[in-house]
Amino acid sequence: MKEFVNYILQFGNLNTQQIDFIVGKTKKLVLKKEEYFSEAGKIPRYVGFILKGVVRFCYYNNKGEEITHSFIDENNFVSDQQRFEAQVVASEYIQAVTDCEFIIFSKKDWDEISNTIVGWDTITGLILKNCLLKTIERRSPLVSEDATTRYLSFIHQFPGLLSRVPLSHIASYLGITQQSLSRIRKNIR
Questions:
Q1: Would the CA dihedral through 114, 116, 120, 122 be positive or negative?
Q2: Which of 74, 148, 168, 169 is paired with 21 by a 20 to 30 Å CA distance?
Q3: Domain of residue 46, residue span
Q4: Cβ distance 112 to 25 under 8 Å?
């Protein structure tokens, strides 16, 4: 819980009473590897904070191929925020890549925090902005770099994920086949 509190305090000031109120609204969620935090075709139920594990955001393209577009690991928020807030059906999946533990907030509790704590919307807005900037920062180079450079960038950006994430998901994230990824890995050893 300390990691969660420290994370949100990076984005604004909260007193002990406010922190206790927020923490009081949390519930724990445990997902096994390959279970879903959120699924396409369903309304997202939670905003989560990852205590342990890695999730990926993925979707199926028009050819039916599974595409991974981002990974999120410990001490970060995870949600399909726009669809969660609007309570509309998601178009992508958020899947546990490893066994995961989360602190979660239901829509009712999230709204209650927002309606009770002055400045909470500002804090969550800054958190969301930070998450979006990180995602853009990580994804932008993937458009212009060759496959080897993309892989080396992945290792640099996600040093702890290589041993925790299946190569098929990494290849999908990098926009290459698993065979190409294997060749790249062999050539840089």
A1: positive
A2: 74
A3: 2-143
A4: yes
- Note the pLDDT tens digit of each residue in 66-114: 889 889 999 999 998 889 989 999 999 999 999 999 999 999 999 999 9
Secondary structure (3-state) at 96: strand
Q: Is the pTM of this model over 0.90?
A: no
Non-local CB neighbours of 15 within 8 Å, separated by 6+ positions: none
CA separation (Å) from 117 to 41, 77, 110, 151? 32, 19, 11, 43
What is the rounded distance in angstroms from the CA atom of residue 38 to the CA atom of residue 140? 25
Q: Encoding tokens for residue 11?
A: 């984005």
**Whether residue 174 sits in one domain with residue 92:** no
**Contact of 174 with 150, CB cutoff 8 Å:** yes
- Domain identity same for 132 and 48: yes
